[in-house]
Design brief:
The chain is mainly beta. The protein contains 1 helix and 18 strands.
C-alpha cells in the first residue's frame, strides 16, 4: 500500500513537472526520433525518398504506477518518384498516463525544392493536419475528500484539431529543421467535448533540430545531432545525441537530455530545469530494408530512486526505393 502511494505521489510530481498547467500537457517525445523526425516536423515527410513505415513503443518511468505507455505508427514517402518534390506522411499515436488516454491522427504534406544541379540539397516546407482525442477516466481518480466537483465522473472525452507547420533543409552531410506543433492550441479553437468542464489539451510546441554526418572511414561514420523543444510554459528541453555507424548496419550511440530556463516563466520557481537523463541507443539493420532499434533512458536527477528508467523499441521497414545514386546513405 505504501509503495503504491509513493508511486502515485511520484507520478503526480512528474505530471506537474511536464505540464504547464492542469489543462495542458507535453507532446510525446521519443528518444529515437533521430531515426524518423516525422513526429516533430511535417516537412520531413518524404525525406528518405522511399516509403518508410515505422512502429514505436515506449514504456516510461518503469516502476511508477500509472506511468506513460506510448505507441506510434507512421508511414511516409514520395508522391512523385520522378521529380521527388512532394512528400506525404501519416502518423497515429496513442499515449496513456494514469487515468488519461490520448489518441491522435495526423496527415503531413511536404513540398521539396531542389537547390542545386546535383540535387544534393533540398529545402522542404510542410504542413500537418490532424485531430486529437482526449479521454479521462474519472473512476480512476482518488481524492483525500470525496465529492470533489472538479473531478470527472466516469469517462469524459474531448476532441480537438491539430495543425502543425515545418521547414526542413538537408544536404548529404547535414540537416536543419524548425517546426511548430499544435499551432492553435490555447487560441480559442473549439472542441467537441462530452463535458463543458473537461479541458485537457496539449501545449503549443516549437522544435529546432540539426545534425550532421562525418565520414571517419569507409566503415565508420559519426552522426551528431541536437534537438531543442520549447512548450512556452515549462522548461526548455535539449537533447544532445551522438551515434556511431559501423558498416551502415550497426548504430550505437548515446543521448543526454536536460532542461533549462530559456526565459522567465512562472514554472521556473519549481526548479524543474534539473530533470536530466542519459540514454543508450542501438539500431541494427537486420536487412537492407528492415531495422530494429532499442533505447534505455536513465534519469540522473533525484527521481532516479523512484523509477527504473524508460524503455523504447522501434521497428522500421523501407520499400519502393527510387533508383538514384547517393553520395552517402540517408541517415537522417
Amino acid at each position: 500500500m505504501m509503495k503504491s502511494v509513493k508511486c502515485m505521489s511520484v507520478l503526480v510530481f512528474l505530471l506537474c513537472s511536464f505540464a504547464g498547467r492542469l489543462s495542458a500537457q507535453q507532446n510525446i517525445q521519443f528518444t529515437q526520433y533521430i531515426f524518423n523526425s516525422l513526429s516533430v516536423n511535417p516537412a520531413y515527410a518524404g525525406y528518405k525518398e522511399e516509403w518508410f513505415a515505422q512502429l514505436a513503443l515506449r514504456s516510461q518511468w518503469v516502476g511508477v504506477e500509472g506511468a506513460p505507455q506510448t505507441g506510434a505508427m507512421s508511414i511516409d514517402g514520395i508522391l512523385d518518384p520522378r521529380d521527388r518534390k512532394m512528400g506525404l506522411g501519416f502518423q497515429i499515436t496513442s499515449d496513456k498516463i494514469g487515468p488519461q488516454f490520448t489518441t491522435s491522427l495526423t496527415a503531413n504534406y511536404a513540398y521539396r525544392l531542389q537547390l542545386d544541379a546535383d540535387d544534393t540539397k533540398r529545402l522542404s516546407f510542410g504542413i500537418g493536419l490532424g485531430v486529437v482525442q482526449y479521454n479521462l477516466n474519472g473512476d480512476m481518480i482518488r481524492t483525500s475528500e470525496g465529492g470533489d466537483q472538479a473531478i470527472a465522473i466516469g469517462d469524459e472525452n474531448s476532441m480537438k484539431p491539430d495543425v502543425r507547420f515545418g521547414v526542413f533543409y538537408n544536404s548529404d552531410f547535414w540537416y536543419m529543421g524548425l517546426s511548430i506543433l499544435d499551432a492553435f492550441s490555447g487560441s480559442g479553437v473549439t472542441s467537441i467535448t462530452s463535458s463543458p468542464s473537461f479541458n485537457i489539451s496539449r501545449s503549443r510546441h516549437a522544435y529546432f533540430i540539426t545534425g550532421g554526418l562525418v565520414n571517419v572511414s569507409p566503415d565508420m561514420r559519426i552522426r551528431p545531432s541536437l534537438m531543442v523543444k520549447e512548450d512556452f510554459r515549462g522548461p526548455t528541453s535539449v537533447d544532445l545525441n551522438v551515434m556511431t555507424i559501423f558498416n551502415d548496419k550497426l548504430w550505437i550511440g548515446a543521448s543526454y537530455r536536460t532542461g533549462f530556463g530559456l526565459w522567465k516563466k512562472d514554472i521556473n520557481k519549481l526548479d524543474l530545469g534539473k530533470q536530466n537523463s542519459i540514454s543508450g541507443i542501438v539500431q541494427v539493420f537486420v536487412s537492407e530494408r528492415f531495422r530494429i532499434g532499442y533505447s534505455y533512458d536513465h534519469v540522473t536527477s533525484q527521481l532516479n530512486s523512484n523509477q527504473n528508467g524508460s524503455h523504447e523499441i522501434t521497428m522500421g521497414l523501407t520499400f519502393g526505393r527510387v533508383p538514384r545514386s547517393f553520395i552517402c546513405p540517408r541517415v537522417f
